[in-house]
Specification:
heterodimer, A: alpha/beta, Alpha-Beta Plaits, 6-stranded mixed sheet, 20 helices, 33% helix, 25% strand, B: abc type-2 transporter like fold, 2 domains, 4 strands
Chain lengths: 603, 373
Amino acid sequence: MPAESELPAALRLEKVSHEFVSAGRTAAALTEVTADAARGAVTGVVGPDGAGKTTLMRLAAGLLKVQSGRIEVLGIDVARSPDEARARIGYMPQRFGLYEDLTVRENLDLYAKVQNVPAAERQARGGELLRMTGLGPFLGRLAGRLSGGMKQKLGLACTLVRIPELLLLDEPTVGVDPVSRRELWAIIDHLVLTEQLTVVLSTSYLDEAERCQRVLLLHEGHLVAATDPAGFAARSSGRSFHVSAAALSKRQLQEQLARTPGVLDATIQGAFVRIVTEPGAQPPLEALPPRGTPLRIVAVPPRFEDSFVAEIRSTPASSPPPAQAIARDKIPAMRGVNNAQPPDWQQESASEQPVIFADRLTRRFGDFIAVDSISFEVRRGEVFGLLGANGAGKSTTFRMLCGLLPASDGTLRVAGYDLRHAAASARGRIGYMAQKFSLYADLSVAENLRFFASAYRLRDAHRRARIAWAVEEFVLGPHVNAVSRDLPLGYKQRLALACALMHEPEILFLDEPTSGVDPLARREFWRRINALAESGVTVLVTTHFMEEAEYCDRLAVLAQGRVLAAGDPESLKERARTAEHPQPTMEDAFIALLEAAAEPKAA
Amino acid sequence: MRASVERIEGLLRKEALQIVRDPSALAIAFLLPAILLVIFGYGVTLDPHHVPLALVIEQPDAITQSFVSELGGTPYFTTETFNTIQAADRAFDAREVSGIIWLRANFARQLSSRGDAPIGVIVNGVDANTARLIEGYLQQTWATWLSARSRVLGATAGLPIEVQPRVRFNSAVSSRDYLVPGLIAIVMTLTGALLTALVIAREWERGTLEALMVTRASIREILLAKLLPYFVLGMGGMLATLVLAVTLFGVPFRGSLLVLTAASALFLLAALGMGLLISSIARNQFVAGQIAVIVTFLPAFILSGFIFDIGSMPWAVRLITHIVAARYFVVILQSEFLAGDVWSVILPNALALLIMASIFLGAARLGARKRLD
């Protein structure tokens, strides 16, 4: 369309700043953001939690007062005529905005009526939406009874009852399983293609950035980049590699590589360590200690995240977030334990009793079987993952492991204790860090540490020593008297981990520990966890986050309360390898497993 | 944007479906008033009933016996006889009795020589209200007994006794008859405010209001669709309490239903308006509930004149009572139940309710914005 270029941009932000004031404190959510989104395309607002994504979306939807700067939606000044702007956009808030005690049909009818969709059109449009979302068979079901993925699709359908000129989706894929995530993207891509829909979508998943035509990258309220994702990823092209070494465990290798000059980023990806090098730097073929260790280095296609991390790390001017201000070599052994084990101690320990042992573990709630006869073992010093979508039975399993919920059937031993009889003794050996960091938000850092130390019955000198250790180890010194609520997310996470480690547990349980955390804080967190595992702490992670699965030594993939598959990340990915997907990702592997499990039922 | 019948119809339909599927709104409208009315109706009464009293008779004789039987003849007291004041004191300290009546050894002698004799009365002043009531009842009983005695003795005794028994608390009419109508106003204040405040807070909590705001539905339509269904529910609750008052508590109803309905409608609009106003501040159901109790129920209970006489409050507090909508409704209810359509009472108070309803609904409309901050 030739007229396209003359139309005003779908969304235009000019020097938009926004602050929130609570309890006398001012927090900047957005700082001088200038950006725009084109029509007929998907623009991603990408960044970790607390980056200002939701604030930006709400400002665009006219839900927040414009404090400073100017926002235009389809050429309309939102501050001046919010109603006019709202009449032309569709908006889906984070929890989809569904009435849970209304059925699918009633929800669609309600939104059709409040959006003044003419009765004649309603029928045709409704049918089309149902076909697209696959919700047809569930018309009479209450929205509250739908799965997370179906809720998300219904939420989307409700915003599409009248074709909006601009569709705003605030984190539509949060907490949704990978299959639904893929389906949602398929719907969006289809609409953009067939109806020239304009979409602005926020997400904290960097891999979703690659699906957008354009990306606004936010970090702590600042616009880091406004770019096309392929071009942005290409910035680190020729600098991304998979590295492996026969003589070193992947965690030791990663630790070494992370300290090597010229390496900007080193993360564990299944059996490999993925590195991104500085521009012009050679891959560190021989530079690694122990000298002469032969490394296998394979160039891999760059990812959006590679460039993002490289960007932030290589430009000191861009004010690194405090969460990564920690010195690179500041990750020593976490415990008093001497960690000078031989590199192959893990093989040796195979003869030991497993630290966590579950055999045909089952939990029923009435007729509903939340966990259906699952079995797995975790050995000392292993990082083990329970991977599954919401509702797969992860949380129930987790609660049983913590001794908070008795099993209906089966055997469960943690640290040698049968949880049926000695749940309290087992709990003393466990450190637990919840997804939302179970900290007391009104207490200061020091008060939180003291509270958890006393909760674990540490006394006098021992208690003082552990608190001093936590402050030193997690570099909490500068914030010791700060109220936890006001800490940046990365610091909250550190404090939560410090509290969980206060009593030197043998086993560490992590519940989606890094979901929504920015990539740098996530890296730092996993380096600590790796160091813990190296020193012999057993780590169990539950997550629906494919990223986190890559860090695990072994995984059990859960769906509908059953273990679909178990093994190390590489072997799981191996199963999904096809001619079409020669390099399957963890997500591909996960989806392949789910589809394979669904097939016999469909037949 | 012009109001759209279609949008309002869609919103009303949604609200109706929610009310049917989630019975919490029905519980607030019907169950809560019924429970509160029963609890307060039976619990809040100003009539002493079987109050335990210690009776110290140092020298029992025919005269003291006569007085004792007079005391025992009322349903207000139960008596326990002690021989010494010390023993009665112990029972008093142990809170076994609420008061002591002390007839000294010279009671009979003084009575026959002077025609009057002092009796000692000790009441527990901690609960001042009950103490005063006991005192009043005792004086009454004492006076009744003296006058009966003087009548029996007749002029033959020639005693200069003059007694004017003034029955302030009519023993036939229980205080419940004027408390229950007032109570309806208090209960409906809470119900009305809770209905709107909670359902809107629920929409905040679930994020549905956020989605609704970015549709073509105007804030006026959203508010109207909240007000109408809960007005109907509230009127239903009002009717239920009315039926309870008449049937369960046997309170007479002497006014006209039409007047009562009209006044109730005005009052309910004010109460629902308060709820709407609360919901513009409180974004979750817990906070909304707390605020509703603190800013609507408690002031209505204390400042509406339903128990505590407004006339005897300090002027500053009296001033505050004017913004308590329940105050006007209590007066109308008491008139409707106990006296009938007393227009000189009903009209000014109904006007006040109309003003209150307009203020609260108007403020709710102004306070509501299609924004989150």
